[in-house]
Design brief:
The chain is 83% helix and 0% strand. The two termini are 27 Å apart. It is globular, with a radius of gyration of 17 Å. It is an all-alpha fold and 243 residues long. It has one domain.
Length: 243
């Protein structure tokens, strides 16, 4: 039953990630944590995140020219990640989590009422560095940078392929930094290494199938999936903060 539950979570998470570029950690980690604990769950899923992001960046590389303000976000996010790690021990994460979750839920409601509402090019350029910095801080403090990054990229009005390429690239940088940190801290044991490899192979197999399916997904369905993953991430952040 445990293996089945984790397998289903990996299947669903990898399938959604293959279409939207996100969704694997928010879906898999809570299920996996029930059986191996939160810390090992995050460590195990990190390898899957790195492998699947690498595949998506390659599969969607043709959309790289559409990726708006990506260099600025990458630099800002890299600076923000260590700040988030420090903030985790010094800042009231309850207030931050609740405020951020409410903001993302408000964005989802606005998009539901006004789906044609997008950021202007000037506003997008101005916001790139603050959003990248906030994404890095959130990744370091909570591991849920998608609530900020995906909201911003979605508001740019880019194509689904550009959305997936952009967010996969950002996630990849954060995941690599996270993975190096786990290795340096000695958090990979023989058991977690084996579990990481098994999860990565399974997730990649589903991803290959999912990317072929993604070309048949209409933009309206893509947008609903993105909003769904954002809502799930915001809900998890809200529950973690209140807990």
């Amino acid at each position: 039953m445990e293996i089945l539950a984790v397998g289903v979570a990996v299947l669903i998470g990898a399938l959604i990630k293959s279409i939207t570029g996100m969704g694997l950690p928010p879906i898999v980690i809570p299920v996996l944590a029930l059986f191996v604990g939160p810390q090992d769950a995050v460590v195990i899923v990190t390898l899957s995140t790195i492998v699947t992001n690498t595949y998506l960046m390659w599969a969607y590389r043709d959309a790289a020219r559409e990726a708006k303000n990506l260099p600025a976000m990458l630099v800002a996010g890299t600076i923000g990640a260590p700040i988030g790690v420090y903030a985790l021990a010094t800042v009231d994460t309850t207030t931050v989590g609740v405020s951020l979750a409410v903001t993302v839920i408000a964005y989802i409601l606005v998009q539901w009422r006004r789906p044609d509402l997008k950021l202007s090019p000037e506003t997008a350029r101005w916001a790139a560095v603050p959003v990248g910095l906030a994404g890095g801080v959130l990744q370091g403090a909570t591991g849920l940078s998608s609530v900020v990054l995906a909201s911003y990229i979605h508001a740019l009005g880019v194509s689904p392929r550009a959305f997936v390429f952009t967010i996969s690239t950002l996630f990849q940088v954060f995941a690599l930094v996270q993975g190096v940190g786990f290795v340096a801290a000695g958090m990979y044991t023989p058991d977690t290494i084996v579990a990481s490899i098994v999860a990565a192979v399974a997730a990649t197999a589903v991803l290959i199938f999912g990317t072929r399916l993604a070309i048949r997904v209409p933009p309206a369905v893509f947008n609903r999936l993105v909003m769904g993953v954002l809502a799930l991430s915001a809900l998890k952040m809200l529950l973690d903060a209140l807990a």
